[in-house]
Amino acid sequence: MDFTLPQDLVQYLNSLDTFIDHEITPLQASNDNERFFDHRREHARTDWDNNGLPRDDWEDLLAECRRRADKAGFWRFSLPKEYGGQGGGNLWMAVIREHLASKGLGLFNDLQNEHSVVGNFPDIVMLRGFGTEAQKREFIPGRLEGRYSFTFGLTEPNHGSDATSMETRAGRETRDGKPGWRIDGTKMWQSGMHRASHCIVFARTSGKAGDAKGISAFFVPKHTPGLKVESYEWTFNMPTDHATVSLTNVWVPETAVFGPVDGGLAVAQAFVHENRIRQAASSLGAAVFCIEESVKYARRRKPFGKELASNQAIQFPLVELATQAEMLRLLVRETAWRMDRVPHYEIEKRLSDKVAMCNYWANRLCTESADRAIQVGTLSRMVTMRVNTKDGIGTRWSGV
Predict the structure, then answer these.
(1) Which residues contact 396 (CB under 8 A, 6 or more apart)?
(2) Whole-prediction pTM value?
(3) Is the pLDDT of residue 258 over 50?
């Protein structure tokens, strides 16, 4: 058993760092773009008079970053070659995401909104595995070209991790001679709703609350009559793009069904597992950043002429966190490695528990490392809030 990273992966990380240094860091430093990352960050990013949504100039900067990363061949890394990617697997993505997050926060990798120069595409994973040929031809190229984007409509006001108890309902209904489905219900945390072209809505189509079978997924165009944005939920770390959406007498044609009727839970799980192992790796990287910066500060700071790091009260908590980071890294990478070796539809049966363990502990370790960094004194309150709030997203909004 060899735990050494493959040489080609190490080389990829080096080339990624070179690209960031030459392209993305100068972009962040130009045109006062540092306002999106320093003490002005929250105000610079947030349009307070427009529901607290992201400002256009902030999202334009993110888009330019992605354009450059795409041109350089990094953004689509995890996608298959037919979509311009390199077929990067879960293990490589886990290592890359940890590496980027451990560098700290910046335009190259912003944890608040899952932006990264190496993109994450769980929606395309869903489409490749469950979309019809017509849906694949339309949505995948459109998604990569920026013509389409999707929200993920699983969570409801009264149901999060207990998704099989969802109250949203869909039933067959013919309108104007066309077969289709009527959908009624409410969804929360519809991230990206302000830019979305469609909502991927999960609804119970048969069975009773709690049944795994009987849930179906639908593509619902954003401007479908009866679909309404009720509010955008303001969060501790702004801006927000997390909408609460109601569906009242919403009708979609039969072609809107995404995946097998009554088998939509598998569609949702394809999204969740692909996303969470990479979120776990990012949280691990953020924790490593906090730990390493704490150690540097403790060695640099010399109250009464003596290094802060010489005190056991400083040493022991940091050693404990560093030990946990080492153990978590092994768990994340082993889980990602195993995910690469089983068919995607088997991950839920064979590795769901391991993915959940990674996500749970990574989020917890990150927040504990950020808290410790505050106590050591190394991180400014603003920077630490950014790390902490990101992992609030991971811990609460990912349904752990």
Answers:
(1) none
(2) 0.91
(3) yes
